[in-house]
Amino acid sequence: MDEDVPKPDAAKTALVLMDFQPATIGGIAESDRGVLLANAEAALAWARAAGLTVVHVRVAFQDSDFAAIPQRNRAFAPLRGGGMLADGSPEGQIVESLRPVAGEIVVRKTRFGSFSTTTLSAQLRDAGVESLILAGITTSGVVLSTVRDAADQDFQLYVLADGCADSNPQVHSLLIEEVFPQQAHVIATERLNKLL
Q1: 10-194: CATH superfamily
Q2: What is the pLDDT of residue 80?
Q3: What three-state secondary structure class fits 55?
Q4: How many Å apart are CA 185 and CA 189, to the nearest integer?
Q5: 3-state class of 182 per DSSP?
Q6: 168 by DSSP, 3-state: which?
């Protein structure tokens, strides 16, 4: 975990909650779900109280999105025709305890990362955001893809180690301990109170 953490400007910082949906939570060990959601809820309450920009990212597909998935896409081609994560379905919605409120940014994506199939980057730039605090499911999916892309876009990054989870705990640990610190400050949710 990063001990030398710079303090971001609240007015230029966004909390980005990614893929907190029934479909993704179902892939996490049941024993870990409660703690993960509690940490995400705490981060959201903190961000709202501190006046940060709040972003909700969810994955969901409309009929045209399913049709546009090429057969060569190993990760997403199996979704074609199955209706899994269809836009409007229960599994494609954000969980109740993290539901957006008026004024918060909500984007729908159709690939792993939060940027490639959304207007999120432009919305963050328009809001003057320079720093991102990331939490999401899964660590090896949306979190990894978003860390890499956001770093390439020169955002200052923070990853909530206990606000992420993966179906493979070893992969989660490797990313949190070895990979993410190369591009992000990795912190615990409880440290948010001292971040600003």
Answers
A1: Isochorismatase-like (3.40.50.850)
A2: 82
A3: strand
A4: 12
A5: helix
A6: coil
